[in-house]
Amino acid sequence: MVFNRGVAITRKVGFPDVIMPGDIRNDLYLTLERGDFERGGKSVQKNIEVTMYVLYADGEVLKDCISLGTGEVCITEYRSFVLYHNNSPRWSEILKLPIPIDRFRDSHLRFEFRHCSTKDKGEKKLFGFAFTPLMREDGTTLTDESHELYVYKCDDNTTFSNHALYLGLPCCKDDFNGCPNIPSSVIFQRSIKETLWISTQLSSTKLTQNVDLLALLKWKAHTDHVMDILGRLRHVNGEEIVKFLQDILDTLFSILDDNTEKYGPLVFQSLVFIINLLRDSKYYHFRPVMDTYIQKHFAGALAYKELIRCLKCYMDRSAEVVRQDHIQDAMKALEYLFKFIVRSRILYSRATCGMEEDQFRASIQELFQSIRFVLSLDSRSSETLIFTQAPQPAHGPPAGSLSCSQAWASASPRPASLSAALLNSFPAIFDELLQMFTVQEVAEFVRGTLGSMASTIHIGQSMDVVKLQSISHTVDSRLFFFPESRRILLPVVLHHIHLHLRQQKELLICSGILSRIFSIIKTSSLECSVLEDVEMMVESLLDILLQTLLSIMSKSQSQEAGCPQCTAEITGEYVSCLLSLLRQMSNIHFQQILENFQSREELKEFLLRIFCVFRNLMKLSIFPRDWNVMRLLTSNIIVTTTQHLSPALHKNFTDSDFDFKVWNSYFSLSVLYINQPSLQLENLSSAKRKKVLDKYGDMRVMMAYELFSMWQSLGENKIHFIPGMIGPFLGVTLVPQEEVRNIMIPIFHDMMDWEQRKNGNFKQVEAELIDKLDSLVSEGKGDENYRELFSLLTQLFGPYPSLLEKIEQETWRETGISFVTSVTRLMERLLDYRDCMKGDETENKKIGCTVNLLNFYKSEINKEEMYIRYIHKLCDMHLQAENYSEAAFTLLLYCELLQWEERPLREFLHYPTQSEWHRKEGLCRKVIHYFNKGKCWEYGIPLCRELGFQYELLYDYQSLSWIRKMEAAFYDNIIEQQRLEPEFFRVGFYGRKFPFFLRNKEFVCRGHDYERLEAFQQRMLGEFPQAIAMQHPNLPEEAILQCDAQYLQIYAVNPIPESLDVLQLDRVPDRIKSFYRVNNVRRFRYDRPFHKGPKDHENEFKSLWIERTTLTLTHPLPGISRWFEVETRDLVEVSPLENAISVLENKNHELRTLISQYQHKRLPGNINLLSMCLNGVIDAAVNGGIARYQEAFFDMEYIASHPDDSEKITQLKDLMEEQVHILGVGLAVHEKLVHPEMRPLHKKLTDQFQMLRSSLCHGLAGLDKLSSACLGASTPRGLFTAHTPMSSESIKLIHRHR
What we know:
One of its GO terms (biological process) is small GTPase-mediated signal transduction. Keywords: Guanine-nucleotide releasing factor, Phosphoprotein. GO terms for molecular function: guanyl-nucleotide exchange factor activity; small GTPase binding. InterPro entries: ARM-type_fold, C2_Dock-B, C2_DOCK-type_domain, C2_domain_sf, DOCK, DOCK_C_lobe_A, DOCK_C_lobe_C, DOCKER_dom. The chain is α+β, with helices and mostly antiparallel strands. It is 54% helix and 11% strand. It contains 51 helices and 17 strands. The protein is elongated, with a radius of gyration of 57 Å. The relative contact order is 0.03. Residues 381-416, 791-810 and 1261-1298 have low confidence and may be disordered.
């Protein structure tokens, strides 16, 4: 105790949960409840006080026998509190009367009632009393209930001097019935209307209120009725029995000693009744009381003989007796019966120095023969069993057991078999037997008993449960922990478990037994050898465990099991059992089990089963996700077991006995093992990774070496796994572990080599490798190092000349190296694709990466199915980005692969099974729809015509009408709707930090609507935030190309149209020409002016050169992407003279085009565009344009120094003359259409034109001869370029007259 001074210990009112032997108590708890009293002729009610005494038979008042509460001093007299003017007081006061046991029988209680006057406070007038004896005449105590006591009138204390005067009177109603003749001349008269109510509760370990129990305890006073007394014991309340347990047991064994032959069977029955009473949940906690009694207080040294005799007699008669309740009760009480037997024998042996030892052993042997006889009855009958609860461990009562009184009161026998009752109690006797016999002797007893159980498991499900529970308790017992006894018991235990597993019965119980056995063997292995135990378990259980697991897993996968949670629990249990067994097996055990197989087929089935179980362990979620330690342990056991089984696989199933099924199962297991997530150490923290490596090593490497070794041992049989194992092996090489990859990659060389030998090529290896590589990398596997590592294959064609002697070495070598190079390039693209798809990359990068991969499949590998898959992936990306024209061009690639035929096509992607014609029709309609949304109607019209032709062939006029209307709508859209001309930008990606498909390459990109150079630059820098913008258009140096950085070089380029015919037609609307100027364009130009040599400050045209760069793309824009890579770059330097010719040609073309648009107008209108263009050319020419060219190139010094340019000078002169003619025509048209208010502008233009013409007359002979012809000149052909701006004065005049 923490505090032991001044602390009062309060005992429970009533008995505690357990009353230990020697715990003596005799407390009577009395509650003074209430009273009813008469007024007594007074006008007011009384003030009543009750005084209570405890008196002995001689009238002596017992002192200090009244306790008001724990910690209070006991008193002799008790006085109640007084209720003012109340004739029906209610006190409800509780008192404890600790009366000595020797004084209890003849004592009684007396209650005196007094009226306390309010006038004279010192006066308390007695007016009555009540009393009650503490024990009845039959020796029982006052019952635990409320008692209504009679009140007798009395007004003088002296009358109490002789207590015999009132003790003869009835104290209550029950007592009055026992005293019918009371003389009328008694001194004390009963007050009829007055009563006192009290209630009592006795807490005594020596006194009882039960007559039958009292008769048993005092049996010596009634020797003639002992048999009747023993028979009535079963009717005694259980609470009374457990209160007086020690006294009852002492009494029973004293009766047994008195006359064994006469009373033995009844004492045995009574003992069985008491033992089974303690099985009741209500009294289960009194079992320690029984144990304490047996060890410290039991003294029946001769009792064991009669107990053994009676128990054996019961068992021997079990087959004859119809009513077997008493026999079953004896079987249930077996544990404590043996405790009494063993303890009794020990006491006898001590008293006699071991006499009659042989007789005792013989009697035990005979008793066990009787036990086996009872168990053997079930093998001869199929009695149905209703489940009987097994004995529970000491920490809790058995659930569902019946009370003893209920069991005895049953009118018909319980249907539970004797075997069940016996088996439930049997394991509990082992510890008792170990006190008298050696471990081996007890083990032999138990083995013989368990061995006598029926081997069949069809006698009833509940009986199977009882048997297995008995075996389970046997395994849990102390006996099983001893190695010498375990070797004796283990075979019979395993025999019964094997039977149940074979029939798939009671799997959960069997798994619990096996788990306990494995745990015990593991613990024992630390102290002694368990090889023999493990050998027995391997021989009996390994194969049946595999079969059981496969059956459970199969039901779990097919969802046949009723309760998924139960199925998961059972699966986990048996997986643990299997792993425990495999973990404890040594190389010797593996050799023995492999040698025990009688045939090759048996070994094959075993290997297939264990490989299948291992695969399921890795595929199914057997263990929770956070059970990493268990998963690692499982992996270690699997790889160790595989290493032990590999030699048997190689020895028995290679060469002429080759079996594909077993080998394929092995390889599948190895691949799955290496790829399992729990072994990917790269995902762990460095600390966890170090712990795993220190304890297990890298188990992936271990399995990879084993796999490679087994592959090498296949020899010619390798061809059976081509191409089937290419994909799985490729998945292994994608594991980010360098050593695993180095081990696995040579296998691909073997595959190519063996297929080359068989077929003369390795097309199967090539096709399968590419397909699997694409799917695996697309799933997110592989890394940057993999593309470099895979190139190691190129080195594997030289080191094996012996493999190459049988084939043409050069052909094989060249083909192989070419294939590996292609695969390496594919890996580069696939890894870029994976990185773009899994990251938060922009749509442009994803699209570019997909285009790169799609083109590779088409041009280099020619894998049509993969090509089509990526076509649809790219199309979906374009649709998401609203690039409808690009989506149409992309889907058109698949459409072009199809023909207008009725050939059936299988289901593919989202396409159903259909004919090739219908699939192509659906694709054409979808492409036309996308072209319409992208406003590329010119590309949709040919498809409309193609579809219309097909509909016309089939006379499908409804569809033909629809497609013709669609085509007509496209023509209307071309004429009526305004389309913006996009700008084009050249983008260079320089540096090793860019993805492979962009690295050190240049592209031309088609900009979005309204997107100019500045906006495009910002967008690109946003997509590549780490990139640095280069500020010059020059090609980068080699250092930039090889640096670990990102550089972007962006500038605008001009398209060079391919459809010149359309652009040269005069009457084609500009909206139509606008489309062909910026669509279907593959070449782009960029001009960079520079001065070669010294710059002429007076006339810069003399030294102004142009660096003209022409970029040719791989595909025209628009196409399947908004940008394409530059295929070729042509750089040309344009001389000042050639530049002048080009400028004049472009300007003349622009003038002719514009003049032709206004030439046929008759009514004046808005001619601002014509006015501005004429003003820009004439004003520039006057201010120096043409004059500067004349000054620079018509100088005699220039002509003399450039004799080769004479034709070009002549061409320049012709262009100048042509421009003067065109200007003349333009002024004539302008004069007809100009508004009157714009006449000043026209006059100004005419005057400047005259100045221009006169200035050219000095340098160009014959120029005036052509002036009259200028007005009638026709519009010649030309190109387009920008014009020079108008002067500010001309602009003001135009705006004034709008």
